[in-house]
Write a structure and sequence with these properties.
Blueprint lengths: L15 H11 L1 H6 L14 H10 L5 H12 L7 H5 L3 H6 L4 H16 L12 H9 L6 H10 L12 H11 L7 H8 L6 H12 L7
Helix pairs in contact: 3-7, 8-9, 10-12
Length: 215
């Protein structure tokens, strides 16, 4: 996400068309779903630090509340960078609507980026699990958040977020007539999706909510 006042730059995955062709051949449900959403596809914007900061701010509160808190928080630093966030006063961050724990998480995020313990420039050459390992070392970032980051920010093509309730609900509805599904059930369904699990997941999410989520 772009800092306040900046125009967000959108990017889309180069592999999307190939993925749709592959998934339509391999999976009867996706063959039906994909045409329903036309040219819509995954988009990424902004920088890594801002995207992760937004994910922390939005934890366990509604989308509307998260946007309101983010708007107040984003107005505090001169620019949304690790160095500027580290200069903020805790009282000002709390006054923006952040809990004490989220303040701690945002400071820890800024410290990791400022110290270079997350290797942003090397991510392009790192595999998904290595990036997840770097991210979950930051307080407030668990595996689910790391996987959402891989999908929505880095646009990695083959991420299967088995901890995501939306994905499990979508698989239940589309493949099991609404019966509950386990992670093992989901993994079996997704065997046909490789190497484009991220794309399949995106369409399963859309089957539940036609409006793409912003990350």
């Amino acid at each position: 996400m772009a800092a306040a006042g900046a125009s967000p730059k959108l990017a889309t995955p180069h592999y999307w068309q190939d993925a749709c062709l592959h998934l339509s051949k391999k999976d009867r449900v996706l063959k039906r779903l994909i045409p329903q959403f036309g040219d819509a596809c995954l988009e990424t914007r902004g920088d890594a630090f801002t995207t992760l900061a937004r994910s922390i701010v939005g934890q366990q509160i509604s989308v509307k509340a998260a946007q309101a808190v983010w708007d107040r928080f984003a107005a505090l630093p001169r620019r949304m960078t690790p160095g500027h966030v580290l200069k903020l006063k805790v009282d000002d961050m709390r006054a923006a609507g952040l809990s004490a724990r989220k303040v701690e998480y945002l400071v820890d995020l800024a410290l990791h980026f400022d110290a270079g313990t997350v290797h942003v420039k090397a991510w392009e050459d790192m595999d998904d699990e290595a990036i997840v390992a770097e991210l979950v070392a930051i307080r407030g970032i668990g595996r689910w958040t790391a996987e959402m980051f891989l999908i929505f920010h880095l646009m990695r093509p083959n991420v299967l977020p088995l901890d995501d309730l939306g994905l499990l609900n979508g698989i239940s509805r589309n493949y099991f007539s609404g019966d509950p599904v386990s992670r093992s059930d989901a993994r079996e369904v997704a065997a046909a999706w490789t190497p484009y699990c991220s794309v399949a997941t995106w369409y399963i999410w859309r089957s539940l909510d036609p409006l793409p989520v912003a990350y």
